[in-house]
Amino acid sequence: MTFRKPLAVASLALLVLAAVVVVRTLLFTPKPQPHLAKAELAVDSQRIASHLSEAIAFATVSYDDPAQIDRAPFEGFLAWLATTYPKVHANLKVEAINHYGRLFTWPGSDPSLAPILLSAHYDVVPVQQSSAGLWQQPPFSGLIKDGYIWGRGALDDKSAAVALMESLSGLVNAGFSPRRTLMVALNFDEEVGSEHGAKAIAAMLKARHIEPLWSLDEGSFVLDGVVPGVALPVASINVAEKGYLTLDVTAHGQGGHSSMPPHQTAVGILAQALVRLQNAPVPGGLDGLSAEMFDNLARYMPFDKRLLFANRWLFGALLNAELSKSATTNATLRTTTAPTMLSGSVKSNVLPVTAEAVINFRLHPRDNVDSVLRYVQKTIDDDRVSIAVRDGRNASSVSDSQGPGFLALAKASREVYGDVVVTPGLTVGATDSSYYDSAVQNAYRFNPMVLKKDELGMFHGINERITVANMAAATRFYSLLMKDAASH
Q1: CA distance 201 to 435
Q2: Cα 270 off chain centre by
Q3: Calpha distance 449→84 (Å, rounded)
Q4: 3-state class (DSSP) for residue 232
Q5: Whole-number Å distance between alpha carbons of 120 and 185
Q6: What is the pLDDT along the chain (488 residues), one digit of tens a residue?
Q7: Residue ranges in 299-403 assigned as alpha helix (H)
Q8: Which residues is 144 bridged to in the sheet?
Q9: Do the bridges between strand 148-150 and strand 256-257 make them parallel or antiparallel, or are there none, so unpaired?
Q10: Which of helix, strand or coil describes residue 431?
Q11: In the chain, what is the straight-line distance between the N-terminal and C-terminal CA atoms, in Å?
C-alpha cells in the first residue's frame, strides 16, 4: 500500500514525458517555404555538353611538383575559352591572374553595390597509370555517350567552369545589363593548393578594397538518395569548410639489434600513441552548424528518427554516439583524426632509434590549430614522443545562412530542381573559398548539379562523368542566380 502513491507519481511522470516527446515530434515538421514554380529557361543542352566535352580534352593536370606540369594544355584551354565565348571576352573586363587564371568582371550600373563573386577551377588531378585501363572511356576523351559526358574534370570542376561561361554568354546574348557588378573567377591550381590562383585573386581584391557581398565556389551538390532517411533531394549549401592540421609524431626509442629488443621499441611507443589518439577522438557533437544542418534534414525523416532529433535534450548523447559511427556524419560533428603515413627502421632486424607517423586532422570550425595541438599532446602524454606541426590552417568562418547570398542560392535551387530540401552544410575538404573567405562578406560552397550515392566515388576516381541533363540544369541555375543577384 505504501508504494502506490510513489508508483502513481512515477507513472504519471512517464506519461507526461512520453506526451511531451510525442508532441514535440509531431510539431517537428519542415519549415514553411515560399512556393516557387520551376523556371522555364531554355538552354541548348547538346551545345553545352559539346563544350564541356571539348574542355575535358585539354589535359590540364596539376602536379605537386611544378616541373611535371605540362603547360601546353593550359594554354590550349585558355585559347579555346576565348574562341568559344567571344562575346564574353569582348563585353566583360578580362584579367589574367598569374598568366593562367582568369577574372571576368561585368560592371554593374550601380557602383555603390558590393559585387558578387562566382568561381570554379579548370585544373584536374592526374589519372594513375595503373587505373587507366579501368576507365570505361578514355579519361581525357570528353566522350558523350549514354547521356553522360565522360572524363577527368567532368565533376571536379570543369563542369562548373563551363556552366558559368555558358551562363555569362547567354546573358550577354540576351542583352542583360547588371545593376550589381558580377565577377567570375576561373582558377588553374586548385588541386595543388591555389597558391597562384585563388590566393592571388583574393589578395588583389583586398588590395583594390573590393569586398564582394558574397561568393560561390565548389562544395556540396544536390544530393539524391545520399542522406539516410531523407527521400527528397538535399541541396546542401555549405556555409563553412574545415581547416586542416598535419602533425609529425615521432617516437624515440633504443636502437640496436632486433634479437635483443627492449620492452618497448620506438615502433611500439608510436603504436601506443596512435591507439590513444584513435580511441579518444577530438570532442564534438550536435551543436552550432552541425545542429542547424541536422535540424533541417531531420524534419523530413520518418517519425522514429524525427523523435530523436526533435528531443535532443533527452536523446542528445544517443544521437552523438550513433552519428559518430558513420564516417560521413562523424566528419560533420568533429575534428577528424587520420594517421596517413608511417616509417621506422631501414632494415627488418634493426631496431629504429625513431619511428615516425604523419597524422592529418580536418578541423571543425569550433576548433583551431592550437587547441587541437594541445589536445594531441595531452592525449598522447608521453615524454618519449615529440610532436611537430608540419602545416595547418584554421577552419573558415561560418557564413550567414539567412543572408542574401544563401537565400539567392536557395531560390535558384528550388527554381531549377523543384521540391528539394535546402540546408546549410559543412565542406570537409579544402576549396578555393578558404582564400575568398578573407576577402568577401560571406563565402558559400555549392555545385548546382544532382549527385547520387553511387557517383560519390568518381571524385578524383575512376570513370568520372556528368549527365548532359546536369550540365543543362547547372547552366539554368547560374543564369537565374546571376540575373537575380545582379538585378538588385
Answers
A1: 9
A2: 32
A3: 23
A4: coil
A5: 7
A6: 466 778 888 888 899 999 999 999 999 999 888 777 787 789 999 999 999 999 999 999 999 999 999 999 999 999 999 999 999 999 999 999 999 999 999 999 999 999 999 999 999 999 988 888 899 999 999 999 999 999 999 999 999 999 999 999 999 999 999 999 999 999 999 999 999 999 999 999 999 999 999 999 999 999 999 998 999 999 999 999 999 999 999 999 999 999 999 999 999 999 999 999 999 999 999 999 999 999 999 999 999 999 999 999 999 999 999 999 999 899 999 999 999 999 999 999 999 999 999 999 999 999 999 999 999 999 999 999 999 999 999 999 999 999 999 999 999 999 999 999 999 999 998 899 999 999 999 999 999 999 998 888 888 899 999 999 999 999 999 999 999 999 98
A7: 303-310, 312-323, 327-333, 369-380
A8: 149
A9: unpaired
A10: coil
A11: 75
- Alpha-carbon distance of 229 to 292, in angstroms, equals 17
Using alpha carbons only, what angle is made at residue 362 by residues 360 and 363, rounded to the nearest 5 degrees?
A: 130
Neighbours of 132 (CB within 10 A): 11
Distance CA 94, CA 105 (A): 7
The CA–CA distances, whole Å, from 44 to 40, 50, 124, 166 equal 13, 10, 26, 10
CA distance 442 to 403: 8
User: Within a 13 Å sphere around the CA of 242, how many CA atoms are in the beta-carbon half?
Assistant: 19
Active site residues: 123, 190
Strand partners, 222: 235, 450
Question: Which cell numbers hold the place of 187?
Answer: 582558377
